[in-house]
């Protein structure tokens, strides 16, 4: 614990407590605003698939008398940069400036490390705080929130001959298909996440037994929002409808799990063909301190 503030007590959380608080806060944010914010609770759980340097120092939360989260400043190490998210319940706008000032302070304590702040382009208050601190929008493409009503999902297309769909529930002993890009602990770490379900962790096996593609689907029983993250088709299996088959199958399983709506943080053709529609007001930009101001070259 780090003291008290007007709207709650400040705490630093790590490990499972961090995931619990972040999940609860993002669920509360989604229940308060159907299309607000940038992230779902499942996004933060997906980020925990590998250990990060920012896990060690604790993430900052404001909690109420029942230890329920009110706001947070979350730092996520992505390697070349650290992402800083200031999360505030949308029905408490008066608290937003306090949280952003704390976020800027924690980012400043990182010295020459490149810190990037994702912020919605329609979030005037957040942009004002960032601009006032000397940060500017970068040229990096931001997150585009695209939504689909689960009842309007596409039909499942057939796989090419010799290919077959499986889930982690079917093959728990098989090496996880995401190991090559996310490290050997990815399967174990996903298992620690409260929203992860092996039956929604899908892959397609090629005729030679190799992984042709995969997709991970997250069903949130609190918000009834599903999330698609990530999706991938491996070379040389592109152009055979594998991603479309995985996506449609996963969307069907999300609907069967009680999800009314599904979200993906992209507007690529795969999702547009499936019926997802971008919510352009929710597009996020990335703000960072110009290189000359923090002494680091771009991309470091």
Enter the CATH topology name of the largest domain: Aminopeptidase
The CATH class of the largest domain: Alpha Beta
Summarize the biggest pleated sheet: 8 strands, mixed
Order of helices and strands: EEHHEEEHEHEEEHHEEEHEHEEH
Total DSSP E strands: 15
CATH homologous superfamily identity of the largest domain:
Gcn5-related N-acetyltransferase (GNAT)
- Given as residue ranges, the uncertain stretches (5+ residues, pLDDT < 50) are 1-5, 292-300
- Helix/strand class: alpha+beta
Structure description:
This protein has 2 domains: 149 residues, Gcn5-related N-acetyltransferase (GNAT) (Aminopeptidase), CATH 3.40.630; 133 residues, 3-Layer(aba) Sandwich (Aminopeptidase), CATH 3.40.630. It contains 9 helices and 15 strands. Strands 1-2-3-4-5-6-15-7 form an 8-stranded mixed beta sheet. Strand 1 and strand 2 form a beta hairpin. The protein starts with a strand and ends in a 6-residue tail after the last helix.
